[in-house]
Every structure is written in C-alpha cells, then in structure tokens.
C-alpha cells in the first residue's frame, strides 16, 4: 500500500462545470482571478442564453457558492433560474493578502474609516491574518478605496469577455456580495449600472451614520432618480442584530439605519426587499445569505427541475 502522493489540486475535484482565468484590468489597474461556472444543463440546452451573477471575494465564493449553485439549480422544492456564476478574486501575491486587497475594490470612494481601525492592524498581524506589509497595505486601501474602478472593470471589461465566450442574455444580470462585498453591492445598486439589476447585499458593512451609502441614497432621493427595473435584496444575520459587540456596531446598526431610511424615504422605482437570516453569525452567514439571494432575485419555475415529481 502506497502512502499519500501529493498532487496539484485539480479544479474539477471541487468545482464541476468551472473554468479558471486571470485577467488584467486597465480600469482598476490590477490583475484578477476569475472563475466561471455554468449550470449543469448548459451543454444540453444549446440554444438557451443565461443570466450572469457576478460575485466578488471569489477566492472564497467560488469553492463555496459554485457547488451550492449547482444544487439549487435542480432543487425541486425552491428552484432557481439557471445562471452563469462569475466569481472575481485575486491571484499571485494578492491571493495571500485578500483581506488587504479587497478593501481597495469593495469600499466606495470616500468611505469613512471605522473607529479604531488603525489600532486593529496590530491585532490582525498578531493573529497571523496578514504580515506587517499586508497590514500596511490594508490600511492604505481603507484610506483610499476605489469601488468605482472595480465596478467599471466588471461592467466595461469583464462582461464583454464573458459574453464573447458564453451564451449570455443582453441584460438584467445579478450581483451578490457579502460583508464588504455586501457594501460594494449596495454601492453598485446606487450607481445604477444598466447591466446589473438584481443585486444582493449580504450583511453589508454599512457604517452607521457615516457611510457614503447614505450620501448616495439621499442624493438620488433629492434628484428624484428613477431606479425602475432594479432590485436590491438586503440580508442581515440574526446575531449581528442581537448580540452586543463588534458586528452589532459594524453591521447591524448600519443595516438598520439603511432599512429605516429606505422604508421612510423610498427611491423611485427601486424594489427593496430584506430578510433576517436566523441563528447565523457573520462568520457563518455567507452561504445562507447567498441561497436566500438566489431564491429571492432569481426564482425558478416550479416543476422545471428534473428532480420534480
């Protein structure tokens, strides 16, 4: 009997129907990793065109969300619309410091720094999450984020590449993000890209009282901007609302403030829905929020699943 023989990990072992790419962005001035996952029926339905769903934080989203997407596409109880998942993450040196690099891409320009964030960098280094160079980079990106450039990369550069290789519908596509990715999703919804209209913001890091999200929202309200045809689904984990501590202040308070603002001063044409994800914490709520987004914003046709009776 032979011992363990280490091999290079094959994508197909974890991510069926997935291809991996790397792409340089002129808009963002960065190189990104991209995972493209097609639904199980993609090859069988040779004439059908599909909705895209973009997801940042791809290094974690691809191995977590792609298998869940495959299962939900054939769920006979709560089916979803078949779609193509496009996860966007980091490669090379950036793959080892995603915590720092994602702050550049996911925070709106001019976003306020959370209180005490500079002091927290030493804790991040002590926990081994980043080395000192990475912590310095994290703080630098927090001070000068560029979600506008990352959004332009998705809509102006990445989408045409995907549409050139896969059968893609012309519009009404999706975007889902969690945590700072959720903050990016909320920002994208208020920037109104015509390409992306079904947006999910899971536990978004909206800083109560000072986030740029509130400025953008109130400006659209004052200008009577039409958000017709756009949907924003916002989720928050139960413990982010109920358990005193960091996430109650960093997530729960801001989400509550945003929902109160949106409920009392709705934007013209915007369909806003929300849900509390029961029991979950910020650390565990990502995939539950992802499934809830899909069932809310990409509902399927009952009986369409091949597993339906």
From TrEMBL:
The keyword Hydrolase applies. GO terms for molecular function: hydrolase activity. It comes from the Bacteria. InterPro entries: AB_hydrolase_fold, Esterase-like, Siderophore_Hydrolase_D. Pfam families: Esterase. Keywords: Hydrolase. Belongs to the esterase D family. This is Alpha/beta hydrolase-fold protein. It comes from Sphingomonas telluris. The lineage of its organism: Bacteria, Pseudomonadati, Pseudomonadota, Alphaproteobacteria, Sphingomonadales.
